[in-house]
Amino acid sequence: QVQLVESGGGLVQPGGSLRLSCAASGFTFSNYAMSWYRQAPGKERELVATITSAGFTTYYADSVKGRFTISRDNAKYTVYLQMNSLKPEDTAVYYCKARMVDYSGTGYDYWGQGTQVTVSS
């Protein structure tokens, strides 16, 4: 039923760019905030960026501010992460997450499978 399918990862040179996509199905996409997380080997998973359900507000980790842009197209049920000026430190598995909290406080989280981004010369 609920599914998040990521694409766009790969190998890129330092200073290069990639755009990750996360296509959603099985839930009301426009009701969910969407986030990108990443996890590098030996490190904790960290929040990279978040966009609210209507796309009016975004959040970025300090490490990616000015370089990454999160966006969403609710008509296409897709969230994107445009990554520019990539650094080796950006190497990680990137995960897409959808979250809705209802009025009772119950959270509904869904995760993508993750896509590998490797920044290396």
Structure description:
By secondary structure, this protein is mostly beta strands. The chain is 0% helix and 53% strand. It is built from no helices and 11 strands. Strands 2, 4, 5, 6, 9, 10 and 11 form a 7-stranded mixed sheet that branches. Strand 9 (92-101) and strand 10 form a beta hairpin.
SSE diagram, text form:
Blueprint: E1 3-7, E2 10-12, E3 18-25, E4 33-39, E5 46-51, E6 58-60, E7 68-73, E8 78-83, E9 92-101, E10 107-111, E11 115-119
Parallel strand pairs: 2-11
Antiparallel strand pairs: 1-3, 3-8, 4-5, 4-9, 5-6, 7-8, 9-10, 9-11
Approximate shape = globular
Biggest sheet architecture: 7 strands, mixed
Gyration radius, in Å = 14 Å
> What proportion of the residues form beta strands (DSSP E)?
over 45%
Runs in which pLDDT lies below 50 for 5 or more consecutive residues are none
Cα distance spanning the termini = 40 Å
Percent of residues in helices comes to under 10%
How many E-type strands?
Answer: 11
How confident overall, as mean pLDDT? 94
What class do helices, strands and sheet pairing give?
mainly beta
Please tally the helical runs, counting DSSP H or I stretches of 4 or more residues. 0
What is the succession of H and E elements? EEEEEEEEEEE
Briefly, what is this?
With 121 residues, the protein is mainly β.
Task: Write out key terms for the chains shown.
121 residues, mainly beta, seven-stranded mixed beta sheet, four-stranded antiparallel beta sheet, 11 strands, 0% helix
